[in-house]
Write a structure and sequence with these properties.
The protein is an alpha+beta fold. It has 4 domains: 2-53, no CATH class; 56-131, no CATH class; 182-231 and 554-724, Chloramphenicol Acetyltransferase; 247-543, 2-Layer Sandwich (Chloramphenicol Acetyltransferase), CATH 3.30.559.70. The protein contains 23 helices and 20 strands. The chain has a 7-stranded mixed sheet, with helices on both faces. A 3-stranded antiparallel sheet has the order 16-20-19. The longest helix has 32 residues, at 99-130. It is globular, with a radius of gyration of 30 Å.
């Protein structure tokens, strides 16, 4: 172990004439450098905390105000309107201090108070300006005079002459507003109208009106009260009740994945790629801990997004509980845990007060890959506990992992910066291999069900062919947060760190680093049986995932924008058309929209299956006019969700309040586990990737077939914008029949 390696630097021998103490200069140097690094880090965090805390002002602006107030002592002009004189007369120990000193102190105190007042005034002015959302409802490329004036005011409020830090705008973000009950119910009924027949809709309308007239007002008052008290009236309940209280397995059901670059692999050496990527992640973490990343801005680089979710990206683990899990976030973790062929290794990330270099990390990972030792009893599938149901895992953790070597090893995993899995089977997209993207996605989503630690904030996955990927736990943050980090890491890996001609990491190798250490386990037979049960449960879920990855290369957002429509609305309507062609019915559709324009905001639901979308799909004759109407409706729904006027989060919170108060409402009860899950990414101007999942156990769905429907729907809709004689392009895509009734995978 690293601690044991360093301990040998201190040796002493007890002799009759005293104690002979020997100190290793290398160890003393490492200790000194580690201490210097720690204090330097604290100093930088304190400095950046002050800079973010007073933004848009600066510490230098305080000095300017003080000098201005001090100069008034000699010009006999009192800008404080007598307040400085009052402060001077009420200073303690006035008899011990000269009149001139008291005057200077009063000027400094008044200047400091004035400076703080101006900071708060600027913040609340900016908060009021950011509460305006008219800009988001305006057509692309058009801007009203009021929005132009608003834009100028926001930029003036944000101007400070220096670059904002990650958390500079947190105190200026508005709170998520609570929509009115009438608006939410009206939008809800509008969203379900195309999905229900007349009898069902009339029944739902009765339930909604009964709820509005009887219980809604009481529940709404509690929500409004919470919105005044908490920074966000949704997010804490959303995290607790949607994620942490769920007792079902989080693998597949909750965790999500992020892929590597599809067409580029910087090196085919597994250890080298992992070394560069881990080093890039450590660089990202250092900037994150110091708050040095630039905040995410929208609307011409003017509207800041909330950065709260980024705080728990590293050093974070979801801890299982009997009734509810908790998210454990630690600070300043200096190691990661690596899984390879059934063994767990601890790798230290620092030496001499600095991060390990990419070449040093490559050497450490190569040492693990070269290790031929066998897994200990019960070690191979140990991580399957995190893939199964939460209650058995919580009970097993208490019974078998709360003391001894098991506790030490589990603590090492749960306190690690993150988890790294060195897989032994290559993955990645290969145009020459059928279904290569499908296998890659399933590997990232669930792997073998025992080679990912699904409770960690994220598991970094490395493949023998140099490909990488991420499996992320969902409770602590949403996908865009991990996406921002992954973009930074890939850019740093490819464009800043680079590789040698042989594919190794650049830099010298320090072979004196201590070897990675094996985590030790003592797992009895009873615990091994529980692990096997969790594994079999997780494997049933993984085997039921029907996944198809569809690369749509016919056109991308470049051509869609030339049609003067939103790429997101275009794709959503294509999904509705594909769904109807596949199932001959419409279904409730959940599209996630972010609410990070508000403090501690996460997501809201956009119900994409609108009456306008249904009308477009049913009538593909008057198609272009109906498409534009449906597209505009979708965009308006998306904007309402982003600006805090969505449906589902408000109903969710009303439901939680009703449970606290013991109020029963049939209207607030009503969710399907079948259907399709579709994730899509618009890549550049000419590529859209669709990730389609369903369940083999659902007899009506087929992910491959649905991907074909999406492809044809995209082309059919794009053909609406072409001259009639050019629509033959749409006929080039045909639906491939399912062979022998079996699903493609």
């Amino acid at each position: 172990m690293a601690e044991a390696h360093q301990a040998v630097g201190f040796q002493f021998t007890v002799r009759p004439d005293g104690v002979d103490l020997k100190l290793s200069q290398d160890v003393i140097k490492n200790i000194y450098l580690s201490g210097v690094t720690a204090w330097k880090k604290k100093a930088i965090q304190f400095k950046n905390g002050v800079l973010a805390g007073v933004y848009p002002a600066s510490p230098f602006s305080w000095l300017i105000v003080v000098i201005a107030m001090m100069s008034s002592l000699y010009t006999h002009v009192d800008p404080s309107l007598g307040m400085m004189d009052a402060i001077k007369e009420n200073l303690p120990y006035r008899e011990c201090v000269s009149v001139q000193t008291r005057a200077v102190l009063s000027a400094i105190l008044f200047a400091t108070g004035l400076w703080l007042f101006l900071i708060y005034l600027l913040r609340y002015t900016l908060k009021a300006l950011l509460s305006y959302h008219g800009w988001i409802f305006e057509s692309h490329g058009k801007m009203t005079t009021s929005t132009k004036m608003w834009l100028v005011c926001v930029r003036l409020s944000m101007f400070s002459g220096r670059r904002p830090l990650l958390y500079s705008f947190q105190a200026s973000l508005p709170r998520l507003p609570v929509p009115s009950v009438d608006d939410t119910i009206q939008r809800y009924l509008e969203s379900v109208r195309p999905l229900l027949d007349t009898k069902q809709y009339n029944h739902m309308e009765i339930l909604a009106n009964e709820f509005k007239d009887s219980k809604a007002a009481q529940l709404q008052r509690y929500l409004v009260l919470k919105s005044w008290w908490a920074t966000n009236y949704v997010s804490d309940w959303w995290e607790e009740y949607i994620y942490l209280r769920g007792r079902a397995p989080i693998m597949v059901n909750s965790n999500f994945y992020i892929m590597d670059l599809l067409y580029v692999t910087p090196t085919h050496r597994q250890a080298a790629r992992a070394g560069n990527v881990v080093h890039a992640m450590l660089q990202y973490r250092r900037k994150l801990e110091r708050g040095e990343h630039a905040p995410v801005l929208r609307a011409l680089g003017t509207v800041p997004m909330c950065s709260t979710q980024m705080e728990r990206m590293f050093n974070t683990t979801r801890i299982p509980g009997i009734e509810t899990d908790i998210v454990q976030h630690l600070t300043d973790r200096k190691h990661l845990v690596v899984y390879h062929k059934g063994r767990f290794f601890q790798v230290w990330l620092y030496t001499g007060g600095r991060h390990l270099l990419p070449s040093e990390l490559e050497m450490q990972f190569q040492r693990i890959l070269n290790d031929t030792s066998e897994p200990q009893q019960g070690e191979l599938k140990l991580a399957a506990l995190t893939a199964g149901s939460r209650v058995p895992w919580a009970r097993t953790r208490i019974k078998y992992f709360s003391q001894g070597v098991n506790k030490v090893s589990l603590d090492a995993i749960e306190s690690a910066a993150f988890f790294l899995a060195l897989d032994d089977e290559p993955q990645g997209f290969d145009p020459a291999k059928t279904n290569s993207l499908d296998g890659y996605a399933k590997s990232l989503l669930h792997g073998k069900c025992y080679d990912r630690w699904f409770d960690k904030s994220f598991t970094l996955i490395s493949y023998p062919n140099g490909k990488m990927g991420v499996n992320a736990e969902h409770s602590w943050a949403d996908a865009p947060i991990v996406g921002h980090m992954w973009e930074y890491v890939l850019a740093t890996d490819c464009f800043h760190l680079g590789y040698t001609e042989e594919g190794h990491c650049k830099g010298d190798v320090n072979k004196g680093l201590p070897h990675p250490s094996r985590l030790q386990w003592q797992i009895p037979k009873e615990c091994q049986q529980i692990i096997e049960t969790s594994y079999l449960s997780a494997k049933r879920i993984a085997d039921d995932v029907d996944f198809h990855g569809c690369l749509f290369t016919e056109f991308g957002k470049g051509l869609i924008k030339k049609c003067r429509t939103s790429p997101d609305a275009f794709i959503q309507l294509a999904l509705q058309l594909a769904q109807f062609r596949d199932q001959s019915v419409f279904c409730l559709t959940y599209e996630s929209s972010m609410t990070r324009m508000f403090r501690d905001g996460r997501t809201e639901t956009v119900r994409s299956c609108t009456a306008e979308a249904v009308a477009f799909v049913r009538a593909m004759e008057d198609r272009l006019a109906l498409f534009r109407k449906a597209s505009e409706k979708h965009q308006n729904m998306y904007r309402l969700a982003m600006t805090g006027s969505g449906i589902d989060r408000h109903l969710f919170c009303l439901y939680i309040v009703s449970k606290y108060l013991g109020v029963d409402s049939p209207f607030l009860k009503k969710v399907a586990d079948d259907g399709y899950g579709v994730s899509y990414i618009i890549v550049g101007e000419n590529l859209i990737t669709f990730h389609i999942s369903s369940k083999f156990s659902c007899p009506d769905t087929d992910s491959y077939r649905f991907g074909q429907h999406i492809r044809k729907a995209m082309i059919d809709i794009q053909a609406l914008f072409k001259p009639e004689n050019d629509k033959k392009t749409a006929e080039h895509v045909k639906i491939v029949p399912v062979e022998n009734g079996k699903k493609h995978i």
